Amino acid sequence: MVGIKNIIFDFGGVIYDINFQNAKEAFNEIGVQDFDKLYSHTYQHQLFERLELDLISPTEFRNEIRGVTGISLADEKIDYAWNALLEGFVTERLDLLMSLKKHYQIYLLSNTNRIHYNYFLKQFQELTNYKSFDGLFSKSFFSFDIKRRKPYLHTYSYVLNNLGINAENTLFIDDSIQNIRPAVELGIKGWHLQEDMCNLFEGNYLKQNIIDRLINSHSNL
Description:
By secondary structure, the chain is of the alpha/beta class. It has two domains: 6-16 and 90-217, Rossmann fold; 20-83, DNA polymerase, domain 1. 43% of the residues lie in helices and 15% in strands. Helix 6 links the parallel strand 4 (105-110) and strand 5 (139-142). The model has no long low-confidence stretch (mean pLDDT 94).
C-alpha cells in the first residue's frame, strides 16, 4: 500500500458551503418559479454545464436565462439570484488546509463558472493573504478554465497527467458520489464526504480509520 501523498479537494460542499435552496428562493423572489427543475445538487440543465465549461460567456448565460424563463430580468438580478447559493467559507477548513499543505500536496478540482468564481474569489482574498487559490493549493483546477468538468473520466486523467502524480497515492474528496466513482475507476482513492471535512483529519494528518478503509477498498462507496 502506497501512502497518500496527494489530496484533491472538491470546492462547493467540501471547503465552501453552498445551499441550493437559497438559489431556488432567490430566483423565486425575482419571479422565476421552479428553478430547482433547472438546477439542483443532483441535476443541472445543459445551460449550466455549458457555462461551467466556458462554452458560453456570462452575458450569453444571462440571455439564455431570460430565454428559458421568459422573463426580462436585469443582469444584476440574475447574478444576485445565481450567487445566492454561495454561503461562504468556513475558516476552520481554511486553517486546516494551510496546515495540511505542510504534509501533503493539496489540490483543488471544482465544477464552477466565471460568475461564481469572481464572487467567491473576492471572499477568499478578504479572508486570506492569497490573491488566488494557487497560493493555498499546490494547484487549482476550475472547470471553466480547463474546459473539463466532473464526473467525466477524462477530467481526472487530465488532472493526473497535468500534475504528473500517481493515482495510487492520490485521494479525491467530493460530496457527490457520482463524482467519486470515475476517479476510483482510474485508481484514485475516493472519499464521498458526508460530514465536515475537518472530521477526516487529526493532527493535520488523515485519521487512521480513514486510511485503513482506503487500504481495504480504495473508497467509502
